[in-house]
Amino acid sequence: MYDGVSRLLGRVRHVCTSLSIMAKLTKKQKEALSKYDPAKAYSLAEAANVLKEISYTKFDSSVDIDVRLGVDPRKADQMVRGVVALPHGTGKEVKVLVLCTPDKEAEATAAGADYVGLDDYIQKIEQGWTDVDVIITMPTVMAKVGKLGRVLGPRGLMPNPKSGTVTLEVGKAVKEVKAGKIDFKVDKFGIVHTSIGKVSFSPEKLAENAQEVINTLMRLKPSSAKGTYVKTVYMSSTMSPSVNIDKSTVAGI
Questions:
Q1: Residue 142 belongs to what domain range?
Q2: What distances in angstroms separate CA 110 from CA 101, 116, 136, 157, 175, one per listed residue?
Q3: CATH number of the domain that 120 lies in?
Q4: In 3D, which of 23, 42, 90 has the Cα closest to residue 53?
Q5: Are strands 115-117 and 96-99 parallel, antiparallel or unpaired?
């Protein structure tokens, strides 16, 4: 009986493997793959050009960079987190909520914040509302905002002094975020993933934004990190294949 079950499982695995092999790429996927060499490593500028060629969405796709670092995020002294002001912005309209005291509301509104308030928005967030991209607050109200950690933490929205989102200069912080300042954090696999613009950007702008992210990561290299710090760099756009970056062509690595 055991042999019979074993043979049956073997046939099932064979069928599943065959179906996987037979799975066809879409016409657009084939066309995208024909326009570049997946095994080749490109410079940042070349990769930006490739992405503009192989992106086939009807909307203006986001362009992302993924940098795998030689760090152990489980160790506090190897957690890489920071902010970067992209020279050409992200191309995305960023919705900003400022949680502040009444005397700072006018400053936040004048700087371009989409939502401004405190207790009313805290109540909305407690009820599950998180329709914003960035939340900026003040040190003096963190006792109230800190209670929202269970809602905001998993969504990456919790304000943090290291990312510049806990500050008394709320107007300045709003302007920086609206201009293209983003924060990032290495994930549990040692990868930093962040947006660097849109496919509609020129290759030069995408390459310069990518270079600025890498420059910032190099400045944040933990002293306890041993061996190769930047292991791999890839760029991709929404639904496109990823493009490998030749690290030897990237300044600063």
A1: 95-178
A2: 15, 11, 14, 22, 10
A3: 3.40.50.790
A4: 42
A5: parallel
252 φψ region: left (φ > 0), alpha (ψ -120 to 50), beta (else):
left
Residue 183 and residue 84: Cα distance in Å, rounded? 6
Q: In the prediction, which pLDDT does 23 show?
A: 53
pTM of the model as a whole = 0.77
Residue pointed to by tokens 């509609």:
200
pLDDT tens track for 183-228: 899 999 999 999 999 999 999 999 999 999 999 999 999 999 999 9
Give dist(CA 130, CA 128) in Å, integer: 6
Query: In this predicted model, what pLDDT tens digit does every residue of 120-157 receive, in sequence order?
Result: 999 999 999 999 999 999 999 999 999 999 999 999 89
Task: Identify whether residues 86 and 191 lie together within a single domain.
Answer: yes
Give 28-33 contacts, CB < 8 A, sequence gap 24+.
28/56, 29/241, 31/56, 32/56, 32/240, 32/241, 33/241
